[in-house]
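> run fold V(D)J recombination-activating protein 2
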Amino acid sequence: MSLQMVSAVSNSSLLQPGCSLLNFDGHVFFFGQKGWPKRSCPTGVFFLDIKQNELKMKPAFFSKDSCYLPPLRYPAICALRGNTESDKHQYIIHGGKTPNNDLSDKIYIMSLVSKTSKKTTFQCIEKDLGGDVPEGRYGHTINVVHSRGKSMSVIFGGRSYIPLAQRTTEKWNSVVDCLPSVFLVDFEFGCCTSYILPELQDGLSFHVSVARNDTIYILGGHSLQNNTRSPSLYKLKVDLPLGSPAVSCTVLPGGISVSSAIVTQTGDTEFVLVGGYQSDNQKRLVCNTIVLEDNKIEIVERVSPDWTPDIKHCRMWFGCDMGKGSVLLGIPGANKQLVSDANYFYILRCKGAEEDEEEELPTQICSQASTEDQGDSTPFEDSEEFCFSAEANSFDVDDIDTYNEDDEEDESETGYWITCCASCNIDINTWVPFYSTELNKPAMILCSNGAGHWVHAQCMDLSESMLLHLSEANVKYFCNEHVDLNKGLQTPKKVMPLKKQPMKPLRKKKTMNLTTPVKKSFLRRLFE
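> ok
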């Protein structure tokens, strides 16, 4: 085992905890960025070109018949391989968190359509499910089993939000362990069936699962209810006869009490278990070799790499499986780097150079790590695929159409993430949309005090209707700190209607009627 430190590129902020790695024919892709995709890569899927100790990101595309794939964080992913050697493998993606912190219950199948030096195209299809559809969740695993010439997917574990009927304002986004049910998913007919097994008593999340043929081994994991890491080793056996499937569970000795562990496959029946936590505040620096045979599993301790002092003394670490026997590990950079979310990264190679050749491995693994994402608590998750520069893995890809994050709008300089007031709690790492009009930036409003300054609408406790009114109406707004000095947001003064003076009627002029008899004396004076 060799440990190599790699340097992170400057435009790596899109790679945040919760992203997922997909390995297609030795080419590594990732999806599931923390925010919503931007115009430079609307699919949110990138090809990672690692060359000359530098990582470049090239946007990938979807075919016209593809469905929309949201950037899901902490989903369950596994490879689905065809029955013949000519069939290319696909990836199954289930569950995960959206940028709005909604939990997905959908299943997607992603396959590689074409790849050239300038463009990579995927096809993404959403599978319609019926029956006992598993609820939206994250931190779970999915595997594919093969029995009697048929295949099915098996979903187990994870966490979900508490039921709506039990939610309160204070605990609206609280999560709980999902019930320890085993779900069988038949992709051919789109049917889901759940099984409750007496051997599985507690829900698990961020565990490790390894599948071979018709058997799945579940190792480790964390239980929120008991706040424990299970030392049990479970063996699930799935039989797929012509009739109804049969699922059985056996508890085996020799398990490992660990969560957030990472598993990478180094051979047809050999795996390496790396990292994880053996308690909330104690990392697990021991590595193990897992060997699967037809009906048994063997777990033995192996020689660990020469961990650096930074890895030994850091409180947290995280990582993911890069495929082909390589694991990416990261530790927080703390205050050693200028960028607040910067980390140090290492690539751990579990195979020798002579063994590092491309091979199709029929065994599947799925590992989940940690208890929460970096924005919530412990940032160690197997779903946190951080992929950065390394000298060994290089792909002969042109630099044309390379994604450059500098082309995107720098949100740190536009003022959306400022501290607008003393009670401001808007943080770029933990913010989620609050208003229906928000997408990837918080709504702001201009305070008209003095020269004017911008404040977050959420920090001002503005309702959505009031925010829409202020955006449409031509009125001045003053924030909570200046509203006492200037009362610009108020009901317009009542204007009294003008009183119209009634017009005086015109007086009739007297006219002389020549027909009226007049006195002679008057006529005499008139003509004299």
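The CA atoms of residues 212 and 363 lie 5 Å apart.
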